[in-house]
Structure formats: structure tokens, C-alpha cells
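Margin note: ligand = nicotinamide-adenine-dinucleotide.
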Amino acid sequence: MPKRPYEILLIGAGNRGAEVYGKWIRSHPDQLKITAVAEPVDLRRETAAKDHAIPPSRQFTGWEEALSKGRLADAAIICTLDQQHTLPALKALECGYDVLLEKPMASRLSDCVTLVQAAERHGKLLQIAHVLRYTDFFQRVYHIVQSGALGQIITVSHRENVSAWHMAHSYVRGNWRRTEDSSPMILAKSCHDLDILYWILSSRPKSLSSVGGLKHFRPENAPSGAPQRCLDGCPAAATCPFYAPAVYIDLEPIYIGLSHAQNRIIRLTGHMMQRSPGVVRAAATIIPPLRQITDYTGWPRSIITDQPSDPASVYEALRSGPYGRCVYHCDNDVVDHQIVLMELENGVSVSFTMHGHSFEECRTIRIDGSQATLLGKFGWNQTFIEIHKHRGGKYQRIEMPNNIEQGGHGGGDSGLMEHFVKALDGVHDATLTDARSSLESHLMAFAAEQARTTGSVIDMPTFRAEVEKTTLFS
Ligand SMILES: NC(=O)c1ccc[n+]([C@@H]2O[C@H](COP(=O)([O-])OP(=O)(O)OC[C@H]3O[C@@H](n4cnc5c(N)ncnc54)[C@H](O)[C@@H]3O)[C@@H](O)[C@H]2O)c1
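Resulting structure:
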């Protein structure tokens, strides 16, 4: 019999650990309970301890100390930054924890393989947070393809359109801006998409090539006279899409996103917050539900300071922290556009485009089969699937709530947690939770980066054989 709620050791109480998984756990107390936390930042550790009633004896300043105590809980959720995944995950598996590990598994391919081998050797669950698999949208696309409704699949074109301000936030100013300190963007951002393609099409790539680079976020593209920091009197303040006070103080991108919501009241409030925020704030004093919008202090503002509801802290973060820097004067080196071309073992051709210059945050997919074409959009503003039959002109459109209405990653964050609980129950859906299948997207990402940086076409069987030789991959 399942023994819910399962006890959890949370490693890393930052954005993913505390704001995403921690929040989900608090609202599902019958399923999971955080009973121990490892986090070096005092305020984050103390907040997590308070939120989850964790006693002092189970609060640790790092995974090293927490995992030196042996097994303190049923499972560990590891949400440290990319380059700090391997060691805590290996140690947790060795201690006997089932593990939910944030993506990417690791920032070196050999470490990804080592992790899969360790999970298999210890007979423990290692689930990677490939949240897209758990969204209603990609589940439906998967089942439509598997059902044969499109006929034989011939070719696929998939795009990850990262909005320009999100690109600037995470990959120009933020934690994932430098390959050396995190991972290549094709791994950090797009291992989800490569995973989805591998999963939906049920085939590995046979050959792969890639082009792309960092084109825009460079000093030579700075507006004339732009200072190092937005707050230092930038002459482009009124027009620059990356002007930090507009993003983090006014939260312009969030309200623009809300103004496309399907719910009429949310849509109107989003519009009003852009034009007359004072009026909405006044209205919120008599209509309390509006405060969820007017008092929003979540991502991305919560990333720049641990006190996002304190205007002075937000301002100080922009004055002196990394997120107040001019996007043309940062120390970033990851790409802002990349295309991967693949021929799969089953003969399907695939093109995947990732870029950070979109007006809206969305993924789009087109799958052409011998019987029908699927067009899909999975976005903040709109989510739908269309199936166009080749014979008879039949057409079906499935409208879904957009990603803002579905919540974190279009419902993927909560779907992931629900599946993690089921996996702890012992109900393993190998297509959803198996670390070895997550490894495939990582192999593709590392091969794509090699192809891009060397200008070569990667023969995947050879690439795979090399990895096997060096890591005893079996
Ligand atoms: N699944 C997804 O879609 C998704 C989305 C965003 C981020 N991520 C991944 O999630 C991971 C975490 O990202 P984040 O945005 O939450 O980062 P974050 O910086 O907000 O959180 C990381 C936390 O780890 C803590 N930490 C550092 N050293 C530690 C140690 N020795 N022991 C325990 N904790 C330690 C940090 O203090 C910080 O609080 C990253 O790998 C990121 O790529 C995944």
C-alpha cells in the first residue's frame, strides 16, 4: 500500500525548490511533506523551514551535510543549479533516496551517464524534471501521433520561441548566461524540446547538424550612449524592450501576458495594469481577488531579490545586481538562436529552432504525416492543436487554456509532481519517468552543441559509441 504523504528532503530552496515544488507540496499535504531542507542562503532555508514546519535538527546549510546523515526521508528533490546536480544526486541515490532531479541532469554528458548507471545500480527512481511531458498539450500530441491518426509520420518542424525579455532575463543577465558556469543553451533550455521530440516520435536521431550563435546581445548592438546599467540614465529607456525597470518594477511582460488571457476579467485587468495601474490598485482595495494580480511578486521579480514585495529591495537589485545591467554590456556568451536538423533512425526528418527574440513565449509544432497534418501552439497567450486531414478537407481544432491559465509550464509543473508521487507509489510509467529515456535528449543536446561549434554533421551511432567507450555506458 502506498505510504502517502511521502517525506521529502528538499535540496536547494530557490525558485524551483521553494516557489514551484515547495508551493505544490504545501497545497498537497496528503501526498508529499518536506521534512528536511538543505539550503545555504539563511533567509531561504528559514522560510522553507517555517513554511513546512521543519524542525531545526533537519535544517542544513548544504546537501553535503544533509546527505552525510544517511537517509532522512523517502525521497529527495534536488533543485540546485545546473553544475551542482551530479554530486548531490549521486550521493542521494547512494543513501537510498528516490530522486526527482531538475533538468538538465548534468552539464557534462559523462555525468549524465554516470547518474543513470547509479540509479540503475541502486535500484532507485531517478526522475528528471522534463515538465513538458506532463502538459495536457504534449500528452495530446503524443497520443494523436501514437494513435496513427496522422498516418506515417514524415517530417516535423518544432520551434521554441523564447520571448525577448525572458531571453534577456535568464540567458543574458541571469544564471544561464555563460556556458562555462551553467550549460550550453541547447541543453539548459531545449533539453525539454529534444526530449519531447524523442518521446513523441519514438525514435533516436541517426544524424544531426546544427547552426546558430549569439547574434544580438553584444556591445556593438547597444543603443548609442547606453550606460552599463539601465538606471544610470539610459537614453533608450522609453523604447528598449529590455529596460530593466519596465520588466522588474512595472512587470510589463506579466501584464501583457495577462491581457491575452481567455478569462475576460483577467484580460481586462492585464490591460488596465499596463495603462492605469493606480486605478486597478484602488479597485483592489474593494475587490480583494484583484490583489492576486496587483500584488504579484513572483517570477521574474522574485529571482532578482529575496524580498520581491519590498520596492527598496527591488530597486537596489536593479541598481547593483546582475539584473539591472544593460543587456548589451553583460558577460553572456550563450547563443540567442540555434537550429538543429536531424534524421531519425525511423527515417523522419526533424528541424528544431530555438531562439530568444520572440514577441511572445510559445512553442509551435507542425507534424506532417501521410494522412494528416498536425499544427500545434503551446503558449502563454494561446494553446491549441489543429488536425487537417489530407482527404476530404476535414479539420478539427482543439482549444486549450493558455499557459498562464494552466499555471507553471502550462500545467507541466503540477503534472510532474503528480507523476512523481505515483512513481513513489510504485506505479511506474516508464515512458514518463525513466532516467535512461531522459538521457536521450541530453545526448542530442551535447551532439547539437558539438555540431554547432565544430560545423560538423554528427553521425549519432559513432557519437554514441564514443560516449559508451568513455563512460562504460551500457
Ligand atoms: N524543469 C524546468 O522547467 C526548470 C525551469 C527552471 C529551472 N530549472 C532548473 O532548476 C534548477 C534550479 O534553478 P532555480 O531557478 O531554482 O535556481 P535558484 O538559484 O533559484 O535555486 C538554487 C538553490 O540552490 C541553492 N544551493 C546552492 N548550493 C547548495 C548546496 N550546496 N546545497 C543545497 N542547496 C544549494 C542556492 O542557494 C539556491 O537557493 C536549475 O538546474 C535549472 O536549470 C528547471
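Residues 6-128 form a domain with the Rossmann fold fold (CATH 3.40.50.720).
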